[in-house]
Amino acid sequence: MSDIHMNERTSAAHGQTLVQRFSNPTRFMAWSGRLLPFLSALTIGVIGFGLYAGLIMAPPDYQQGETVRIMFVHVPAAWLAMFTYLTVVVSSVGFLIWRHPLADVSAKAAVPLGAAFTFLALVTGSLWGRPMWGTYWVWDARLTSVLVLFFLYLGLMALRNALEDELLAGKLTAVLAIVGSVILPVIKFSVDWWSTLHQPASVIRLDGPTLHASMLWPLLVMAVGFSLFFATVHLMAMRNEVLRRRLISLQRGRARSGRASTAATVIEG
Amino acid sequence: MGAQALRRQLSKAERVAKNRLGRASGAERMETLSHEMFVGLSYGVTGVVFVGLVAWVLMTGRRRRAEIARLEAKGSRAL
Amino acid sequence: MTAFLAVLRRDLQLGVREGGALGTALGFYLVVIAILPLGLGPDLDLLQRISGGVLWIGLLLSSLLSIDRLFAHDLEDGSLDVLMSGALPLELVVTAKAIAHFLVFGLPLVLFAPLLGLMLNFPLPASGVLVGTMALGAPAVSFVGAIGAALTLPVGRGGLLLALLMLPFFIPILIFGIATLNASLGGPGSAATPALILTALTLAALVLAPFAAAFALRVQFRG
Question: B45: which chain A residues are within 8 Å (Cβ-Cβ)?
Answer without folding.
Answer: 120, 123-124, 127
